[in-house]
Amino acid sequence: MKASEIRDLSHDERIRKLNELKEGLFNLRFQHGIGQLETPNKMMVNKREIARIKTIVREYELTKKDKE
Predict the structure, then answer these.
(1) Which terminus, N or C, of the chain has the lesser number of Cβ atoms within 10 Å?
(2) Cα separation, 4 vs 56, whole angstroms
(3) What is the count of structural domains for the chain?
(4) Distance separating alpha carbons of residues 66 and 58, to the nearest angstrom
C-alpha cells in the first residue's frame, strides 16, 4: 500500500489497518517460529507497511495538534 493511498484513508481506517497488519505480523512470526513460513520476505514487507502507517498517523496527530 502506497503512502498516498494511506493518506486517503480516514484516521479510523488507518488505525484499523494498522491493527490488522500487527495481527498479521504476529501470525507470520508464529509461522516462522514453527518453520511453516514459505517466504520470510512477507515479514519484512509487513513491517514496512506498519512503519509507513505509523508515520502517517503520527503526521496526522502533529498537524491536528498544530491546528488547535
Answers:
(1) C
(2) 10
(3) 1
(4) 12
